[in-house]
Write a structure and sequence with these properties.
Strand 11 and strand 12 form a beta hairpin. With 470 residues, the protein is mainly β. The chain has 4 helices and 21 strands. The two termini are 31 Å apart. The protein has a 16-stranded antiparallel β-barrel. It has a two-stranded antiparallel sheet with strand order 11-12. 42% of the residues are buried.
């Protein structure tokens, strides 16, 4: 979903610190206690899909902790796994904690660690899942449930039917929610038709909501435009050994309760013509939009939202991955007559949140707001005597000409962002730390307007992160 409805966050006067520093320190001590007393030895698993200390995304899981027995019961294939990511971020732009210029005390354009100069629990993710068994004669079933807590869920997480999720400031939002909850059915049709019903993550370009499955500590600014979860029915089919697709029809975006009754369509294509070359193509059309008026949601009557990404991963050179990711979005807004019919005086809408190009005058306004972003990744990984070591360079260039997409943009103004991020990761060659990765990251962000700190055109941050998978 686009960020049109979240502009109240931009005028927050000061940070509301929901939890005290003492609690955060206590949690850190508890986490380190678990690791140092051998909790890793108990869990048997290498992580939520993959731990990218030194390896390419999409690698197969090594081991899991199985809940059920090895028999033929439904629970026999159930897997339990999870991810914990904690970090400390220091922002050299030094945003003020007491004054507004103009966005308050947070790391601008971050969605997973907005807290300035302090420790953060970015993610604590627990997943219980079971894949449908392959059977050419019978329909088989499975499921996936993911419960997530931490700052990475507050901006893009589901509001599970509570509309106040979008009418309140980000600092007040709940710190937990279901990232995924869906039933899987496999039908013995051709290579196997898999049908998933429920709430699912949308693939966000080349990155993932799970930090153990990314190369960087922070998400690229492009993620501000990407859909989060979709609630509906999804069909997955492999046409060829190197070609698979997903088609979905959803009635909510980031929700369990629809804002309107317009469907949202999803399409994803994965093509791997060579062992060292892989393409992803994905699009969403019709994601829900709305405006906030007197703390109520007014649904979109045009439902004209389009988001598309395409990326290519090249891994021909040993120990290197190169990725190019292009993303674009268009949004039509809300018809002005619909606003009037709901008793809203369009002249009373805050101009800094809903400018004229958003509340339109006709149905043919599919290009009222637009977005373009491109990201380039270079990832190197290798195993040494001391452990697995990786380095990742990410370059991102973003255009938000109407100011209606990026978190730090001001509606009605043109913005251009550039982001350069370098991340070092290490998984020590110690048995007790085989599930732990440490990352150090430096990020430099630039903008054509002073959106960082107290009006700076640039922002430099350093981030130290620990990721533990089980």
């Amino acid at each position: 979903m686009s960020k049109l409805m979240n502009r109240e966050d931009l005028i927050k006067e000061r940070v509301i610190k929901k939890y005290g520093t003492g609690l955060v320190i206590y949690i850190y001590i508890f986490i380190w206690f678990l690791i140092s007393t051998g909790f890793s030895e108990y869990s048997y698993g290498y992580g939520y899909s993959r731990l990218l200390s030194a390896g390419e995304p999409g690698g197969k899981n090594s081991k899991y902790k199985f809940i059920g027995n090895s028999g033929n019961s439904f629970l026999s294939g159930v897997k339990f796994l999870g991810t914990l990511a904690v970090s400390y971020t220091y922002n050299f732009a030094d945003p003020s904690s007491t004054t507004v210029y103009p966005y308050g005390n947070k790391n601008a354009n971050y969605i997973d660690n907005y807290q300035v100069n302090g420790p953060t629990i970015n993610e604590f993710d627990i997943t219980v899942s079971k894949k449908p068994a392959k059977n050419n004669n019978f329909i088989t079933s499975g499921f996936t449930v993911t419960l997530d807590t931490g700052q990475n869920i507050q901006d893009v997480g589901p509001y599970t039917g509570n509309y106040s999720y979008y009418t309140q400031y980000i600092y007040y939002r709940q710190l937990c929610g279901f990232r995924q909850a869906y039933l899987s059915l496999r039908f013995p049709v051709g290579s196997g038709l898999k049908v998933e019903i429920g709430e699912k993550n949308y693939l966000i370009g080349y990155e993932s909501y799970n930090l153990a499955r990314t190369w960087n500590n922070t998400y690229s600014p492009i993620t501000a435009i990407e859909p989060g979860e979709l609630m509906g029915i999804f069909l997955n089919y492999r046409f060829l050994p190197n070609l698979k697709s997903t088609i979905g029809i959803a009635y909510t975006d980031n929700a369990l309760v629809p804002v309107n009754q317009y469907p949202t369509y999803e399409f994803i294509l994965v093509y791997k013509p060579l062992n060292y070359l892989k393409f992803h193509e994905g699009m969403v059309y019709g994601a829900e939009n709305f405006i906030i008026y007197k703390n109520n949601l007014i649904p979109d009557n045009l439902n004209k939202f389009f988001y598309n990404f395409i990326d290519a991963k090249f891994s021909y050179v040993k120990d290197y991955d190169f990725v190019l990711d292009y993303e674009t979005g268009f949004n039509g807004g809300i018809n002005k007559s619909y606003v009037f019919n709901n008793g809203i005086n369009v002249n009373n809408l805050p101009s800094n949140i809903y400018p004229g190009q958003f509340v339109s005058t006709s149905n043919s306004i599919f290009d009222k707001s637009r977005f373009t972003g491109i990201a380039f990744y270079i990832h190197h990984y290798k195993t040494y005597n001391f452990g697995k070591f990786s380095q990742t360079l990410r370059l991102t260039d973003i255009f938000d000409p109407q100011g209606l997409w990026e978190m730090a943009s001001v509606p009605g103004e043109a913005f251009h962002y550039f982001d350069c991020t370098f991340t070092i990761g290490i998984r020590p060659n110690l048995k007790i730390m085989r599930h732990v990765q440490y990352r150090f990251e430096f990020e430099r962000q630039l903008s054509n307007q002073g959106v960082y700190g107290d009006g700076n055109l640039s922002q430099n941050t350093v981030n130290l992160m620990m990721i533990y998978t089980f």
